[in-house]
Design goal:
- Strands 1-2 form a two-stranded antiparallel ribbon.
- It is globular and about 45 Å long.
- The chain has one domain: Rhomboid-like fold.
- About 35% of the residues are buried.
- The protein has about 200 residues and is mostly helical.
- It is about 70% helix and about 0% strand.
Length: about 200
């Protein structure tokens, strides 16, 4: 089976980055209006389940997440088309929001893209098993090891300093679970690429 050679479409990550940069330019007002705030969500501000992913603690956190987005896209961006990536992102966002709401009742506040990034990376790595099995399995194992470390020990050393604040490691777990679910849905319906 041949490896698909198409170039990844960079419009999807560009739009995500643009929305994050616009929110950052809006500053503290955007964070106040768009962050995951459990009490505000309970009061009917449901948009925060989605919008929390585009606001950040500050410019350092934003830069870290955008660099990670570029890396994720470079590694696995060609694995799906734009519509499929939108679906993966939607499932990852939903998984993070549902996980926070139903499993982390003590979590009051959250911002950042890292949960969704874990979902995108894992979904792309799982799909890559079809064409680059060793490399893709290695990425999946590294993601699983990172998630296990975070659940057992806490954030990776230096990650809170790099982000400029606390790291909510369950966002990574829930986002990865959403990415794995999306990859499983696409796995069943995907057809191998036609040979030349």
């Amino acid at each position: 089976m041949q490896i698909p050679r198409r170039i990844p479409d960079w419009q999807f990550p560009f739009v995500i980055a643009l929305v994050c940069v616009v929110a950052a330019a809006w500053g503290d007002a955007a964070r106040a209006l768009f962050s995951y705030d459990r009490l505000a969500i309970a009061d009917g501000q449901i948009w925060r389940l989605l919008s929390a992913h585009v606001v950040h603690l500050g410019m350092q956190h934003l830069a870290l997440n955008l660099a990670a987005l570029a890396l994720v896209w470079f590694l696995v961006g060609r694995r799906y088309g734009t519509k499929q990536w939108l679906f993966v992102a939607a499932i990852s966002v939903t998984a993070v929001g549902a996980g926070f709401w139903w499993l982390d009742a003590g979590l009051r506040w959250y911002v950042g893209l890292s949960g969704v990034l874990h979902g995108l990376l894992l979904a792309g790595a799982i799909q890559g098993i079809r064409w680059l099995p060793w490399e893709s399995v290695a990425v999946c194992v590294l993601i699983a090891a990172k998630l296990a470390w975070e659940q057992l020990v806490g954030p990776l050393p230096g990650s809170e300093l790099a982000a400029g604040g606390s790291v909510v490691v369950n966002a990574h777990l829930y986002g990865a679970a959403g990415g794995a679910l999306a990859a499983a849905i696409f796995w069943r319906s995907a057809r191998p690429p036609a040979s030349i």
